[in-house]
Write a structure and sequence with these properties.
globular, 312 residues, mainly alpha
């Protein structure tokens, strides 16, 4: 009989998500959840936590009954203090998570035009806040073709319509107000690249950069483990996870090459890393992975407490 280690007990416990949510709320309070800006940030974080619960329930990303994906997401968001105020990063992450839920519905379906319309509408709305999100749109068509086997001419044009729709209204507003320069400046952001330099990285708070660095390291280990053991999952789940893994690669690469967008990309990375990390910790049970899980909790908790101590 396989021994149930600490990580397995946490993964299957009904108290895991409430404890993680309570810890995150305390971190939010330590910085001032009573301010309206941070209160709405906390509410949006709660909405995204619920979305991860629904996504995991609908598509069975984990082979066991567990709330670890949403617990890890809310825990890491709480540790990342720069994500506490209501900001573009939270909205963009929420819209990308919504796009996952919608595009997963199209798996091996043919009549998915409405699904694609809504999926790419999420990307289009997110790109109003973060224009560089448009760079992810072509990859969604690729996911639909390679992983989900749902791309048709009808779904392609439906997706393109959903992507363009927010800009249709934006162009109408610009024409109505006579401020066409707003539209031009928005698309000019797509070509705004800064030279890769160490100084750009050093501009960010060390503790926040350390948290993102640790997430990248843990996610890399978890991703390699999943690729090696993905045969244990059903083909359907495997395709969903491959999509998330490729998104993880794109977000990390974007973060390395363009750290000027650290704020928004850090939110996307935390949102996207949650299912990868939860799959690794929930479905392994060796001494080494159990130690890694304890180290994961200790490191992020210490960084959070150190952040509070510095601010106080």
């Amino acid at each position: 009989m396989e021994k149930r280690r600490f990580q397995n007990k946490v993964a299957t416990s009904g108290f895991t998500l409430p404890v993680a949510a309570s810890f995150t709320t305390l971190l939010w309070c330590a910085e001032g959840i009573y301010t309206l800006n941070r209160l709405w940030g906390w509410v949006l974080c709660a909405v995204m936590t619920y979305l991860w619960i629904e996504t995991n329930n609908a598509y069975s990303l984990l082979r066991i009954r567990s709330r670890l994906t949403s617990a890890i997401f809310v825990f890491l968001t709480g540790c990342m203090f720069s994500l506490h105020p209501l900001q573009d990063s939270l909205f963009v992450s929420c819209l990308m998570l919504g796009s996952y839920y919608l595009i997963f519905k199209s798996y091996q379906q043919t009549n998915v035009s409405v699904c694609f319309l809504h999926t790419f509408l999420c990307i289009g709305l997110g790109s109003l806040l973060f224009p560089q999100l448009l760079y992810f749109a072509p990859f969604y068509f690729w996911y639909a073709s390679v992983y989900l086997r749902s791309l048709t001419w009808h779904s392609f044009w439906a997706g393109l319509t959903g992507l363009i729709l927010p800009y249709w209204f934006m162009a109408g507003y610009a024409l109505y107000t006579g401020e066409i320069s707003i539209l031009k400046a928005h698309f000019c952001e797509l070509t705004n690249f800064r030279t890769f330099s160490l100084e750009t990285y050093l501009q960010h708070p060390p503790l926040q950069a350390a948290i993102i660095g640790l997430i990248v390291i843990f996610s890399l280990v978890a991703s390699i483990h999943y690729i090696r053991t993905s045969f244990n999952d059903k083909i359907r789940t495997r395709m969903f996870m491959y999509l998330i893994l490729f998104q993880e690669f794109l977000i990390t690469l974007f973060l390395i090459l363009q750290p000027m967008h650290f704020g928004i990309l850090s939110g996307l990375l935390i949102m996207n890393s949650a299912p990868i990390l939860s799959h690794f910790f929930a479905l392994t049970g060796s001494k080494l992975t159990n130690a890694a899980f304890i180290l994961f909790l200790v490191l992020f908790t210490l960084l959070s407490l150190l952040n509070i101590w510095i601010q106080l």
